[in-house]
Amino acid sequence: MISDLPTAAAVSKEALVSPTARTARIADIDVIRGIALFGVLTMNLAYCFRIPLLAIPPPTDHGLDHVVNRLEGIVLASKAMSLFSMLFGAGLCLFLDRASASGANALGLLARRLIFLLLFGIAHAFLVWNGDILIEYAVGGLCALAFIRKRPAVLWIAVVALTLLPPVASAWPPLKAVADYRPPHHFEDAVHTYGTGGYLEIVRFRTFELVQLKTRAIMFFWPNVLRNILLGILVWRSGILRAPLEHVRTLRWTAFAGIVVGASYPVCRTIYLEMYDLPTTPPGTARIFFYSVTTPLFALGYGAGILLLLHGNTRWRTWLGAFAPLGRMAFTNYLTESIVFSTVFYGYGFGLIGKVGFAATAAMGIAFYVLQGIVSAHWLRHFRFGPFEWAWRSLTYGQWQPMRATSARTGGIMTPSRSES
Question: Domain of 184?
């Protein structure tokens, strides 16, 4: 039950001197991360596995696929990823606070953690799937270390500047042309290679895309990742995640304004596309500006709404607790999704890339997410961490971490009291 997991206020100082114990986690963050993971999985399937990530496809969706595509564009597109990266920023602060309380070199330990995440991301991007986000998180996290102890005003200035950077950059035609460059017939070549090629052939093609294309396109995406991480730092320092019941009014306004204002652009854009029977709108400066502004607001609204439900009544908290294991094993679940679905869609597996629509990938996402929820809950009854979380923690601390759940109770970490929330 999620109510058995304490909030940060319940964590004893003794628990801070070691990696986070299973009973010393902030359950709210796990729940929100687990919910965000569903959106990330669904959108990755729709736009990064169903078709090649860096190729621009012709418009082909119709019927149910068209409806699912539009709904995903309004409700999920980029919002789940933004919320996920905000939680990553909050997680940096949580790690830093606990490491500082132990007397360790907190910034050095956190930098080490992020460097190992970068290595995971590089291996993931080149060997498994070029839609990797871990590299951006690691680089963004390392950059965020320069801001993590700054005054809120400094962080807000950086947030505004990073929000405006992509639309300003897109207004300069030479820079935008570099970012938008695609070789002739790239979509057809990508579908053929990923759909029929062997593993080594796909790795070679993926390497070409990563070096020649993703490094160009990242200039419009990376500022948003860093911006979201900084917003997560601001949220953590506001105290909302540590004591939600003390900020109910703020949460209500954030949920209402964030969802209403955040939804305004994707809803209006979808209406426009339907009225004029257009597959999409070109990524001009105005579109990039509204996207950069409304997406984080929508994500903040989602997060605030989930917190209100978690602390509104016991029934909601119990029901939403099912998402906590998914969030606690988000790293393992994310990498598992890449391994499984690259096999499903690529030529060395089932070769489904370019052959299924939005509705089919949505169904795949729901089914696999439910399966991951069941497996995660079962795994965490016996182990403290997911397999990749365990490897990452062991590398961070430079020693093997106790893995079995019994070790969490007998490994010298004081068990904190039950949360009163």
Answer: 2-410
